[in-house]
Amino acid sequence: MSIDFEREVQETTFYSPLEEFEETTVETEVRVDPLTGRTARVVTDNFLVSESPEISEEVLDDEGCFFCPGTVEEATPQYPDWVGTDRGKSGEATSFPNLNPYGAYSNVVALTEEHYVPIDEFTTQQFADGLCAALQYVRDVFDHDPDARFASVNMNFLPSAGSSLIHPHMQTLVDGRGTNEQRRVAEAARAFYDENDEVYWSELALQERGGDRYVAEIGNVHWLAPFAPTHHRHLVGVAAQIHSGVPEPRGDVAHDFAEGLVNVLSYYASLGLNSFNVAMFLERDDPALPPLLNVTARSVFDEHYWSDATFFTALHDEGVVDVAPEEYGDAAHDFF
Ligand SMILES: [Zn+2]
Would the pTM of this model clear 0.85, i.e. be above it? Predict the structure, then answer.
Protein backbone atom coordinates (compact mmCIF):
# COMPACT_ATOMS: atom_id res chain seq x y z
CA MET A 1 0.00 0.00 0.00
CA SER A 2 1.10 3.57 -0.45
CA ILE A 3 0.54 6.65 1.70
CA ASP A 4 -0.71 9.66 -0.27
CA PHE A 5 0.77 13.10 0.26
CA GLU A 6 -1.83 15.60 -0.86
CA ARG A 7 -0.92 19.23 -1.41
CA GLU A 8 -2.48 22.20 -3.09
CA VAL A 9 -0.79 25.41 -4.16
CA GLN A 10 -3.01 28.47 -3.79
CA GLU A 11 -2.06 31.69 -5.58
CA THR A 12 -2.90 35.24 -4.65
CA THR A 13 -2.25 38.29 -6.83
CA PHE A 14 -1.87 41.95 -5.88
CA TYR A 15 0.11 45.08 -6.78
CA SER A 16 3.06 44.97 -4.41
CA PRO A 17 4.72 48.01 -2.85
CA LEU A 18 7.84 45.83 -2.61
CA GLU A 19 7.93 45.53 -6.44
CA GLU A 20 7.13 49.16 -7.34
CA PHE A 21 3.45 48.22 -7.48
CA GLU A 22 3.94 45.70 -10.26
CA GLU A 23 1.48 42.82 -10.30
CA THR A 24 2.87 40.11 -8.01
CA THR A 25 1.75 36.54 -7.39
CA VAL A 26 2.47 34.81 -4.08
CA GLU A 27 2.02 31.08 -3.54
CA THR A 28 0.85 29.35 -0.38
CA GLU A 29 1.06 25.60 -0.08
CA VAL A 30 -1.69 23.81 1.82
CA ARG A 31 -0.88 20.26 2.90
CA VAL A 32 -3.05 17.47 4.23
CA ASP A 33 -1.80 15.13 6.93
CA PRO A 34 -2.02 11.65 5.37
CA LEU A 35 -3.27 10.06 8.59
CA THR A 36 -5.76 12.50 10.12
CA GLY A 37 -6.64 14.92 7.31
CA ARG A 38 -5.54 17.89 9.46
CA THR A 39 -4.21 20.71 7.25
CA ALA A 40 -1.08 22.86 7.44
CA ARG A 41 0.07 25.89 5.47
CA VAL A 42 3.61 26.68 4.43
CA VAL A 43 3.90 30.46 4.58
CA THR A 44 7.36 31.94 4.23
CA ASP A 45 8.70 34.56 6.63
CA ASN A 46 6.08 34.18 9.34
CA PHE A 47 8.39 33.08 12.16
CA LEU A 48 10.85 35.53 13.66
CA VAL A 49 14.20 34.16 14.73
CA SER A 50 16.42 36.65 16.53
CA GLU A 51 20.14 36.23 16.12
CA SER A 52 21.29 36.30 19.73
CA PRO A 53 18.49 36.46 22.28
CA GLU A 54 19.38 37.95 25.65
CA ILE A 55 17.73 36.52 28.75
CA SER A 56 18.26 38.78 31.76
CA GLU A 57 19.79 37.40 34.94
CA GLU A 58 16.70 38.55 36.81
CA VAL A 59 14.47 36.20 34.81
CA LEU A 60 16.84 33.31 35.44
CA ASP A 61 17.07 33.90 39.19
CA ASP A 62 16.32 30.73 41.17
CA GLU A 63 15.06 32.57 44.26
CA GLY A 64 11.93 30.87 45.56
CA CYS A 65 11.92 28.12 42.91
CA PHE A 66 9.99 25.04 44.10
CA PHE A 67 11.79 22.73 41.66
CA CYS A 68 15.36 23.46 42.79
CA PRO A 69 17.22 20.89 44.94
CA GLY A 70 16.57 21.41 48.64
CA THR A 71 13.02 22.66 47.99
CA VAL A 72 11.67 20.08 45.55
CA GLU A 73 11.93 17.38 48.26
CA GLU A 74 10.13 19.58 50.81
CA ALA A 75 7.64 21.90 49.16
CA THR A 76 6.05 19.82 46.38
CA PRO A 77 2.97 17.58 46.80
CA GLN A 78 3.25 13.87 47.62
CA TYR A 79 1.59 11.01 45.75
CA PRO A 80 -1.48 9.18 47.06
CA ASP A 81 -0.78 5.78 48.66
CA TRP A 82 -1.47 3.63 45.56
CA VAL A 83 1.60 5.05 43.79
CA GLY A 84 3.78 3.38 46.39
CA THR A 85 6.20 6.26 46.90
CA ASP A 86 5.80 9.84 48.09
CA ARG A 87 7.79 11.26 45.18
CA GLY A 88 9.48 9.52 42.26
CA LYS A 89 13.23 9.75 41.80
CA SER A 90 15.37 8.89 38.80
CA GLY A 91 18.85 10.39 38.47
CA GLU A 92 18.40 14.16 38.65
CA ALA A 93 14.67 13.90 38.02
CA THR A 94 12.05 14.14 40.78
CA SER A 95 8.35 13.47 40.12
CA PHE A 96 5.33 14.48 42.19
CA PRO A 97 1.62 15.23 41.70
CA ASN A 98 0.71 18.41 39.83
CA LEU A 99 -0.64 20.93 42.34
CA ASN A 100 -2.74 22.28 39.44
CA PRO A 101 -3.87 19.04 37.79
CA TYR A 102 -5.22 18.92 34.23
CA GLY A 103 -7.23 15.77 34.78
CA ALA A 104 -7.62 12.64 36.88
CA TYR A 105 -3.92 11.84 36.86
CA SER A 106 -1.47 14.65 36.36
CA ASN A 107 2.09 14.88 37.58
CA VAL A 108 5.21 17.00 37.21
CA VAL A 109 8.79 15.86 36.70
CA ALA A 110 11.41 18.40 37.79
CA LEU A 111 13.95 17.39 35.17
CA THR A 112 17.28 18.83 36.24
CA GLU A 113 19.09 19.95 39.35
CA GLU A 114 20.18 23.10 37.51
CA HIS A 115 17.55 25.86 37.61
CA TYR A 116 18.22 26.97 34.05
CA VAL A 117 19.64 24.82 31.26
CA PRO A 118 20.21 26.32 27.79
CA ILE A 119 18.47 24.34 25.06
CA ASP A 120 21.70 22.78 23.74
CA GLU A 121 23.07 21.74 27.14
CA PHE A 122 20.49 19.11 28.06
CA THR A 123 21.98 15.61 28.16
CA THR A 124 20.54 12.30 26.99
CA GLN A 125 20.83 11.06 30.57
CA GLN A 126 18.70 13.92 31.87
CA PHE A 127 15.90 13.22 29.40
CA ALA A 128 16.22 9.45 29.89
CA ASP A 129 15.83 9.94 33.65
CA GLY A 130 12.95 12.40 33.16
CA LEU A 131 11.13 10.02 30.82
CA CYS A 132 11.80 7.18 33.24
CA ALA A 133 10.07 9.10 36.06
CA ALA A 134 7.17 10.06 33.77
CA LEU A 135 6.68 6.60 32.24
CA GLN A 136 6.82 4.95 35.67
CA TYR A 137 3.96 7.19 36.76
CA VAL A 138 1.97 6.32 33.62
CA ARG A 139 2.47 2.62 34.32
CA ASP A 140 1.42 3.10 37.96
CA VAL A 141 -1.77 4.85 36.83
CA PHE A 142 -2.55 2.18 34.21
CA ASP A 143 -2.14 -0.48 36.92
CA HIS A 144 -4.34 1.47 39.30
CA ASP A 145 -7.21 2.52 37.01
CA PRO A 146 -8.40 0.26 34.18
CA ASP A 147 -10.38 3.16 32.63
CA ALA A 148 -7.25 5.29 32.16
CA ARG A 149 -6.37 4.69 28.51
CA PHE A 150 -4.54 7.73 27.15
CA ALA A 151 -1.34 9.23 28.48
CA SER A 152 0.96 12.03 27.40
CA VAL A 153 4.33 13.29 28.59
CA ASN A 154 4.66 16.97 27.82
CA MET A 155 6.98 19.90 28.19
CA ASN A 156 6.82 23.66 27.82
CA PHE A 157 10.31 25.13 27.93
CA LEU A 158 10.58 28.83 28.78
CA PRO A 159 7.72 31.35 28.95
CA SER A 160 7.43 31.81 25.17
CA ALA A 161 6.52 28.10 24.99
CA GLY A 162 3.87 28.50 27.69
CA SER A 163 5.88 27.73 30.81
CA SER A 164 5.29 29.82 33.92
CA LEU A 165 8.57 28.54 35.39
CA ILE A 166 12.14 28.65 34.13
CA HIS A 167 13.18 25.40 35.83
CA PRO A 168 13.01 22.57 33.23
CA HIS A 169 10.11 20.23 33.94
CA MET A 170 7.84 17.72 32.21
CA GLN A 171 4.13 17.22 32.82
CA THR A 172 2.26 13.95 32.50
CA LEU A 173 -1.48 13.66 31.90
CA VAL A 174 -3.33 10.33 32.05
CA ASP A 175 -7.07 9.81 31.73
CA GLY A 176 -9.78 7.99 29.81
CA ARG A 177 -10.24 10.68 27.16
CA GLY A 178 -6.90 11.95 25.89
CA THR A 179 -6.78 15.31 24.12
CA ASN A 180 -8.34 16.31 20.80
CA GLU A 181 -5.19 15.59 18.81
CA GLN A 182 -4.51 12.35 20.69
CA ARG A 183 -8.00 11.07 19.94
CA ARG A 184 -7.81 12.17 16.31
CA VAL A 185 -4.46 10.42 15.85
CA ALA A 186 -5.55 7.30 17.78
CA GLU A 187 -8.81 6.92 15.83
CA ALA A 188 -7.12 7.44 12.46
CA ALA A 189 -4.29 5.06 13.39
CA ARG A 190 -6.83 2.42 14.41
CA ALA A 191 -8.75 2.82 11.14
CA PHE A 192 -5.51 2.54 9.15
CA TYR A 193 -4.51 -0.57 11.10
CA ASP A 194 -7.88 -2.24 10.62
CA GLU A 195 -7.89 -1.49 6.92
CA ASN A 196 -4.28 -2.33 6.06
CA ASP A 197 -3.20 -4.70 8.84
CA GLU A 198 -0.13 -2.47 9.26
CA VAL A 199 0.98 0.21 11.71
CA TYR A 200 0.75 3.58 9.92
CA TRP A 201 4.16 4.74 11.13
CA SER A 202 5.92 1.55 10.05
CA GLU A 203 4.59 2.15 6.54
CA LEU A 204 5.43 5.83 6.74
CA ALA A 205 9.02 5.18 7.84
CA LEU A 206 9.44 2.63 5.07
CA GLN A 207 8.13 5.03 2.47
CA GLU A 208 9.98 8.11 3.77
CA ARG A 209 13.37 6.51 4.36
CA GLY A 210 16.01 8.06 2.12
CA GLY A 211 13.89 11.14 1.47
CA ASP A 212 14.35 14.68 2.76
CA ARG A 213 11.70 14.30 5.47
CA TYR A 214 13.36 11.21 6.96
CA VAL A 215 15.80 12.52 9.58
CA ALA A 216 17.39 9.47 11.21
CA GLU A 217 16.97 6.18 12.99
CA ILE A 218 18.23 5.93 16.56
CA GLY A 219 17.89 2.43 17.96
CA ASN A 220 14.16 1.72 18.01
CA VAL A 221 13.08 5.23 17.03
CA HIS A 222 12.55 6.71 13.57
CA TRP A 223 12.75 10.52 13.40
CA LEU A 224 10.75 12.29 10.71
CA ALA A 225 9.65 15.76 9.67
CA PRO A 226 5.86 15.39 9.24
CA PHE A 227 4.50 16.20 5.76
CA ALA A 228 1.91 18.55 7.33
CA PRO A 229 3.62 19.94 10.46
CA THR A 230 1.53 21.20 13.37
CA HIS A 231 4.04 23.95 14.17
CA HIS A 232 7.48 25.35 13.41
CA ARG A 233 10.25 22.80 12.82
CA HIS A 234 7.94 20.01 14.01
CA LEU A 235 9.81 16.72 14.27
CA VAL A 236 8.39 13.41 15.43
CA GLY A 237 10.07 10.34 16.85
CA VAL A 238 8.20 7.06 16.61
CA ALA A 239 9.03 3.65 18.05
CA ALA A 240 7.07 1.96 15.27
CA GLN A 241 7.81 -1.62 16.34
CA ILE A 242 6.79 -1.16 19.96
CA HIS A 243 3.33 -2.52 20.54
CA SER A 244 3.20 -2.63 24.30
CA GLY A 245 1.77 0.86 24.83
CA VAL A 246 4.11 2.34 27.41
CA PRO A 247 7.86 1.81 26.93
CA GLU A 248 9.86 0.27 29.75
CA PRO A 249 10.79 3.29 31.93
CA ARG A 250 14.46 2.32 32.14
CA GLY A 251 14.61 0.54 28.80
CA ASP A 252 16.30 1.15 25.46
CA VAL A 253 13.28 2.76 23.82
CA ALA A 254 13.05 5.56 26.41
CA HIS A 255 16.80 6.08 26.08
CA ASP A 256 16.55 6.20 22.26
CA PHE A 257 13.82 8.84 22.49
CA ALA A 258 15.98 10.87 24.90
CA GLU A 259 18.99 10.73 22.59
CA GLY A 260 16.96 11.90 19.60
CA LEU A 261 15.39 14.72 21.59
CA VAL A 262 18.83 16.05 22.52
CA ASN A 263 19.73 16.02 18.81
CA VAL A 264 16.56 17.91 17.89
CA LEU A 265 17.36 20.56 20.49
CA SER A 266 20.93 20.92 19.17
CA TYR A 267 19.45 21.54 15.74
CA TYR A 268 17.05 24.18 17.13
CA ALA A 269 19.93 25.87 18.99
CA SER A 270 21.95 26.05 15.78
CA LEU A 271 19.14 28.21 14.31
CA GLY A 272 19.15 30.61 17.29
CA LEU A 273 16.01 29.03 18.77
CA ASN A 274 15.84 28.60 22.55
CA SER A 275 12.31 27.46 23.37
CA PHE A 276 10.26 24.33 22.57
CA ASN A 277 7.27 22.10 23.33
CA VAL A 278 7.25 18.31 23.66
CA ALA A 279 4.29 15.92 23.66
CA MET A 280 4.69 12.15 23.80
CA PHE A 281 1.46 10.32 22.93
CA LEU A 282 0.80 6.95 24.54
CA GLU A 283 -2.20 4.67 24.51
CA ARG A 284 -2.71 1.57 26.59
CA ASP A 285 -1.94 -1.65 24.72
CA ASP A 286 -3.02 -0.55 21.26
CA PRO A 287 -0.85 -2.07 18.54
CA ALA A 288 -2.12 0.58 16.11
CA LEU A 289 -0.60 3.45 18.10
CA PRO A 290 3.08 3.09 18.98
CA PRO A 291 4.75 5.68 21.26
CA LEU A 292 5.12 9.02 19.43
CA LEU A 293 7.26 11.94 20.57
CA ASN A 294 6.37 15.29 19.01
CA VAL A 295 8.76 18.22 19.32
CA THR A 296 8.25 21.73 18.01
CA ALA A 297 10.16 24.99 18.21
CA ARG A 298 8.49 28.02 19.78
CA SER A 299 9.12 31.76 19.64
CA VAL A 300 12.58 32.77 20.74
CA PHE A 301 12.41 33.80 24.39
CA ASP A 302 13.92 37.17 25.16
CA GLU A 303 12.77 40.38 26.83
CA HIS A 304 10.22 41.31 24.17
CA TYR A 305 9.22 37.93 22.83
CA TRP A 306 6.39 37.62 20.33
CA SER A 307 3.89 34.77 20.62
CA ASP A 308 3.82 32.36 17.71
CA ALA A 309 0.49 30.94 18.93
CA THR A 310 -1.75 33.05 16.69
CA PHE A 311 -5.46 32.70 15.94
CA PHE A 312 -4.48 29.81 13.70
CA THR A 313 -3.11 27.91 16.70
CA ALA A 314 -5.57 29.09 19.36
CA LEU A 315 -8.83 29.00 17.40
CA HIS A 316 -8.35 27.15 14.11
CA ASP A 317 -6.05 24.27 15.06
CA GLU A 318 -4.28 24.94 11.74
CA GLY A 319 -0.55 24.36 11.34
CA VAL A 320 1.26 27.37 9.88
CA VAL A 321 4.98 26.99 9.30
CA ASP A 322 7.54 29.15 7.55
CA VAL A 323 9.86 26.39 6.32
CA ALA A 324 8.77 23.23 4.50
CA PRO A 325 9.56 19.95 6.27
CA GLU A 326 11.70 18.75 3.33
CA GLU A 327 14.02 21.68 3.99
CA TYR A 328 14.29 21.49 7.78
CA GLY A 329 14.14 17.67 7.87
CA ASP A 330 17.20 17.57 5.66
CA ALA A 331 18.97 20.19 7.81
CA ALA A 332 18.13 18.39 11.07
CA HIS A 333 19.70 15.22 9.70
CA ASP A 334 23.18 16.72 10.30
CA PHE A 335 22.53 16.80 14.05
CA PHE A 336 21.75 13.08 14.37
ZN1 LIG B 1 14.74 26.01 40.09
Answer: yes
Beta strand pairing status for 221-224 and 214-218?
Answer: antiparallel
pLDDT, tens digit, for every residue of 90-110? Answer: 999 999 999 999 999 999 999
DSSP state of 18: G
Ligand 1 center–CA 85 separation, angstroms: 23
Ligand 1: centre distance to CA 154 (Å): 18
If you write DSSP's letter for every residue of 284-328 in order, what string do you get? TT-TTS--EEEEEE-PPPSTT------HIIIII--EEESS-HHHH
CA 22 to ligand 1 center in whole angstroms: 55
Q: List, for residues 45-81, the tens digit of each pLDDT value.
A: 777 776 677 788 888 899 999 999 999 999 999 999 9
Q: Name the DSSP class of 226.
A: -
Half-sphere exposure of 10 (CA within 13 A, CB side): 9
Fold (CATH) for 65-335: HIT family, subunit A (3.30.428)
Domain layout of the chain by residue ranges: 6-42, 65-335
Q: DSSP 3-state helix, strand, coil percentages of the chain (rounded to 5)?
A: 30, 25, 45
68 CA → ligand 1 middle, Å: 4
